[in-house]
Amino acid sequence: xxxxxxxxxxxxxxxxxxxxxxxxxxxxxxxxxxxxxxxxxxxxxxxxxxxxxxxxxxxxxxxxxxxxxxxxxxxxxxxxxxxxxxxxxxxxxxxxxxxxxxxxxxxxxxxxxxxxxxxxxxxxxxxxxxxxxxxxxxxxxxxxxxxxxxxxxxxxxxx
Length: 159
Fold this sequence. Notes:
Layout: E1 11-17, H1 21-37, E2 41-47, H2 53-66, E3 74-82, H3 88-107, E4 111-118, H4 121-128, H5 135-154
Parallel strand pairs: 1-2, 1-3, 3-4
């Protein structure tokens, strides 16, 4: 099956901030088996940092509203923010979280929240590692469940 013949309603879009690419790679590795086992193909869309993740998610949602062939079954918003010496961390965490929640509510789009907010790199590595806390898998479970919830209320088997 080639990529052009796959309907996006069997795809999960992972919008990933690549600022800490080792961390997001680990989270994708933790999420992928669950998503694949549930019958979904994964499309990865890299963006620079967590601040850009909500905008890319919104662009994907808007594209799906205009063209049903570009609508994803769900989205995973993924990245990592590590506290530094200034309050930049607080602003990025708060605004990215709020924007993602707003999209979830206004568009009723299943979005798995996989943005780690950590004090240091050691915490991020433990949380991202599939053999340890495996936060990528937790976010995958969340997006899969929300896809089921949306289907329940819309009365459709595939959406």
